[in-house]
Design brief:
Layout lengths: L7 H4 L8 E6 L1 H4 L8 H16 L3 E6 L2 H9 L9 H24 L5 E6 L1 H5 L1 H16 L3 E6 L13 H12 L3 E6 L20 E2 L4 H4 L15 H13 L3 E6 L5 H8 L3 E3 L7 H8 L5 E5 L1 H8 L9 E5 L7 E6 L2 E7 L4 H7 L4 H8 L13 E3 L1
Parallel strand pairs: 1-2, 1-5, 2-4, 3-4, 5-7, 6-8, 9-11
Antiparallel strand pairs: 7-8, 9-10, 11-12, 12-13
Length: 380
Amino acid sequence: MDAVLLDARVARFAPAACPRLVVKIGSSLLVTADGDVRCDWLAGVLDDIAARRAAGQSVVIVSSGAVALGAKRLGLPKGGRASLEDAQAAAACGQIMLSGCYADLLGSRGIQAAQILLTLGDLEDRRRFLNVAATLDRLLALGVVPVLNENDSVATAEIRFGDNDRLAARAGQAAGAAGVILLSDIDGLYTADPGSDPAATLIDTVTRLDAATEAMAAPTSGSGLGSGGMVAKLQAAKIALGAGIHLAIVDGRVLRPLARFDATARGTVFIAGEGARAKKAWLAGRLTVAGRVFVDAGAAAALVQGRSLLAAGAVRIEGQFARGDAVEIIGPDGAVARGLAGYDAGDAARIIGTRNEAQAQLLGYAPRAALVHRDHLVLL
């Protein structure tokens, strides 16, 4: 693969510019409507990945498909998604088949596979996130291709990503990847739903993910097998861009989709600027918060200028959070920032609207420097 010959957008994902890459494979691509693995198609994808590894790129695969595979074997209705219990049972049955398939196909190409199953909490909790990052780093250093999936056999609504697009973006952060490619059942982001609007056109490059761009997302995927859709892909792009990771949505319905992307440059590429520092990128990419702090216009403006959140600018506390938990900071015009709370919710509620000199008497101990310190805060 010669990056000089590649389209400039595509070259961002080539080995020379992207030493570590995450490739996400969805259920609608991997599993037929009858519940069987598209082995020939998957073999082509893994041929592409083998070629990239030979060129010096480390690759992490995020793969759906366990629920769809297990549902057929267990004879479950609605693809195994009629109930949470059915989905968990289908995932438990299908995951062993899925991992075996990857192990066999990668092994036949001289590549060692590894499996990592994750729940939302594994990447939302800072210590567990760092553990995942360390494991991925070691596996990649050993030349292994990790295959990640959501641990649907134990996940509930409260601890689920709900789609592997966002998981792929978070995995990109944990792996220290420079690029994420989402193989999809559509060839990118369109100005409107191409299934219903013949005038819809493909957007090849996005440099700013704003409200107008998000409004273009169709609410669902068409296959009925996956759990994501274009909305989830744009959420994944937002997470990736916040960490300085480029993301591409590429048509996965063809054979050798990664090679085709290299050759044609067809797809939507979200180009990242300089990413936040690792801890702040992790904060920005979180999908859950423990509570919210509502602030006045002056405090919101101060945050934008790079200052800490002081109690004097807070007007209301929502939720039950402990010191160190992630909280969202809401200004008069909406969400402004996300950060780690300097106080638990009870003490924060006692001191909102007060200046430092009055806080010791209210708290019974010397106040901290800020409600949320700027070193533990990221703008949204």
